Amino acid sequence: MQLEGSSALVVGGAGGFGAATVRRLAEAGVHVVIADLNDERGKALAAELGDRAEYLRTDVTSDESVREAITAATSAAPLRTVVIVHGGPVAARRIVNRAGEPYSADIFARTLDIYLTGTYRVLSLAAGAMTQNEPLESGQRGVIIATASIAGFEGQVGQSDYSAAKGGVIGLTLTAARDLAPTGIRVMTIAPGTFYTPAYGPDEAAVQAKWGPSVPNPKRMGSADEYARLAVHIADNDYLNGTVIRIDGALRFNI
């Protein structure tokens, strides 16, 4: 799919994966809307990229907020690429603790609201906007790339809500691609393994020493730019549709 001269919306665009993806899309000649709740990082990234990007504070739990971000993107150029890579709070707790107390269903539902329902909200509203695009010669109107996790396949102890949410994103992928196929909109999902991002803190060497050896090959954590390069390749390659790509160095989580 032709990227140059189009616009993109990166939800979570101020984070590690998101910022790397914003930079790669901007390099490809795309005007990028950085949608996030981190005003400081979002504004700094937009300033770095100049007229190739703009920042808009966006809450994935709000239809109105997501629509505003989509409107900003469509106002700049035809919206052809959406990358959904926002983060959120994660509380690692067993379903029942040692005292026999169950994990709060309200917290469980909140995690699903952010990661799964938030993904669906962006996907559905963005797809509605993309249907108004003139199709390219290939018949394509756009691509939506969601982000899951290998925890959606092999959840760890204490990840019931996060694994359920990411498993839901995985399950949504093929159905969404089939639903949107008549419109010329593709849907893909990336499922990262262990990647070094600012969320791990500033001491990358210590983090790599802890987590890197568990990755079969290469024996290191992934970099945000490796995620970004995959996202841009998916956007560019029309025959990638309806599937989940693990990017994890062959890592499989064990108990």
Largest sheet: 7 strands, parallel
Helix content: 40-55%
How would you state the average pLDDT, rounded?
Answer: 96
Low-confidence stretches: none
Structural class by SSE content: alpha/beta
Q: Could you outline the blueprint of secondary structure elements for this entry?
A:
Layout: E1 7-11, H1 16-27, E2 31-36, H2 39-49, E3 53-57, H3 63-76, E4 79-84, H4 105-130, E5 142-147, H5 160-180, E6 185-192, E7 195-196, H6 204-211, E8 222-223, H7 224-236, E9 244-247
Parallel strand pairs: 1-2, 1-4, 2-3, 4-5, 5-6, 6-9, 7-8
Describe this entry's structure for a reader.
The protein has seven helices and nine strands; from the N terminus they run βαβαβαβαβαββαβαβ. The chain has 255 residues and is of the alpha/beta class. The strands form two sheets. The chain has a seven-stranded parallel beta sheet with strand order 3-2-1-4-5-6-9, with helices on both faces. The chain has a two-stranded parallel sheet with strand order 7-8. α4 runs parallel beside α5 (160-180). The longest helix has 26 residues, at 105-130.
Task: Put the structure in a nutshell.
By secondary structure, the chain is of the alpha/beta class.
Essential attributes:
9 strands; globular; 255 residues; two-stranded parallel ribbon; alpha/beta
